[in-house]
Amino acid sequence: MNTDEIKQKLTEEKALLERELSDVAVADSENPGGYVGKEPDMNDENPADVLEEGHEQEVFSRNQAITNDLEMRLVNINKALDALENHRYGVCNKGGEDHPIEEDRLEANPAATTCKDHM
Ligand SMILES: [Zn+2]
Known about the structure:
Low-confidence stretches: none
Distance between the termini: 21 Å
Shape: elongated
Bound molecules: zinc ion
Helix content: 40-55%
Order of helices and strands: HEEHHEEH
Radius of gyration: 18 Å
């Protein structure tokens, strides 16, 4: 397994996720390293949209849902990068005993922390 290549893949994905997060979320002041969905910016709104009842709440809910998803992926990538540093990459420890994660699973998802049996 070429760890340099994996590290590069993960780092690229991390940068991409952080860029996507900056579109829909802001840093969470109460949770360092965390994010919260952006409140819709009224000044940016099309006046017709603002009149629509519940639109604001809808935008916020959508931002929050996207943020949660991106944040979860970011957490997994950070875990995988940590594992690479600690020479624990590609190891599943579910079920009590360390065993390798299938190579094809890691290829499909370089941030996987569990094998196919423990997905
Ligand atoms: Zn496993």
